[in-house]
């Protein structure tokens, strides 16, 4: 099965280890993975701020870059949601481009969704093992596209993981793209609530596959002196399969 990785802007800049892990897991599960180097931003920041022309231009570029891809997989819920929820509507007045956008949407998957719904992954059969206590941050964008328990279902396939849920998993972390900069007091209060929930689990690792959320929560944890390590789901799975021994976590900017 051929898969193209869409790494996303924040992932490429701040969490490259997550992208490497995603590729190695997909390859371990039998996929032939490529990385279209011409990919850029999906247009979400422009769309969120009402800059429609620029959002359309970036969306059209993404569609062209991935035109020949059989499947597109991304380790980011928000970028997957941008593509799935808004790309066809950006070309409402252009039937040809709308058709191409809908084709792109039908081939785009978030990482955990792809593993379970397309690859039917069974990590137990591969001997997956990762020792430690971990909690998981459910991003709002993932819930928005109907992805809720996929990550937890995959974690439960890994021997040694002691999963401790957050008390209010549905609560937003306060990032929300430009929301955090436009409403810093509200955003700050929301992320402090999230930190308190993480601290209450007693877990040493918080799993978050949303780069924006991860940056927001990890920064707040440092400020609140909450000693927890952040890792993406691809990293946890790759580590559980022994695929990341050559790349220390410190190289990911942790």
Walk me through the structure.
With 254 residues, the protein is of the alpha/beta class. It has 2 domains: 2-117, no CATH class; 125-247, Rossmann fold (3-Layer(aba) Sandwich), CATH 3.40.50. The protein is 50% helix and 13% strand. The chain has 13 helices and 8 strands. It has helices spanning 9-14, 16-28, 44-48, 52-65, 77-90, 95-106, 111-118, 140-144, 150-155, 179-182, 184-201, 211-223, 233-240; strands at residues 2-5, 32-34, 71-74, 108-110, 129-136, 159-163, 205-207, 229-231. A 4-stranded parallel beta sheet has the order 2-1-3-4, sandwiched between helices. It has a 4-stranded parallel beta sheet with strand order 6-5-7-8. Strand 7 (205-207), helix 12 (211-223) and strand 8 form a beta-alpha-beta unit. Helix 2 packs across helix 13. The longest helix has 18 residues, at 184-201. The radius of gyration is 18 Å and the shape is globular. The model has no long low-confidence stretch (mean pLDDT 94).
CATH architectural name of the largest domain = 3-Layer(aba) Sandwich
The helix fraction, in percent, is: 40-55%
What distance lies between the first and last C-alpha atoms, to the nearest angstrom? 32 Å
Number of helical stretches of at least 4 residues: 13
Biggest sheet: strands side by side, in what order? 2-1-3-4
Count of beta strands: 8
Structural class estimated from helices and strands? alpha/beta
Overall average pLDDT: 94
């Amino acid at each position: 099965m051929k898969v193209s990785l869409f790494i996303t802007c924040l992932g490429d800049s701040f969490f490259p280890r997550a992208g490497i892990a995603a590729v190695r897991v997909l390859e371990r599960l039998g996929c032939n993975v490529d990385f279209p180097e011409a990919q850029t931003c999906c247009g979400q920041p422009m769309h969120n701020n009402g800059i429609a022309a620029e959002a359309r231009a970036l969306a059209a570029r993404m569609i062209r870059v991935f035109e020949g891809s059989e499947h597109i997989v991304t380790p980011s819920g928000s970028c997957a949601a941008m593509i799935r929820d808004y790309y066809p509507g950006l070309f409402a007045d252009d039937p040809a481009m709308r058709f191409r956008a809908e084709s792109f949407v039908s081939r785009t998957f978030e990482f955990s969704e792809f593993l379970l719904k397309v690859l039917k992954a069974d990590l137990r059969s591969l001997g997956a093992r990762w020792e430690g206590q971990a909690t998981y941050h459910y991003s709002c964008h993932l819930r928005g596209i109907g992805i809720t328990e996929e990550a937890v279902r995959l974690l439960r396939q890994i021997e040694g993981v002691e999963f401790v849920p957050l008390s209010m998993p549905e609560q937003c972390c306060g990032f929300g793209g430009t929301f955090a900069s436009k409403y810093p007091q509200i955003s700050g209060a929301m992320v402090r609530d999230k930190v308190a929930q993480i601290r209450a689990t007693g877990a040493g690792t918080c799993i978050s596959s949303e780069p924006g959320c991860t940056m927001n929560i990890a920064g707040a944890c440092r400020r609140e002196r909450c000693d927890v390590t952040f890792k993406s789901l691809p990293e946890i799975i790759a580590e559980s399969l022994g695929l990341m021994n050559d790349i220390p976590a410190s190289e990911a900017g942790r």
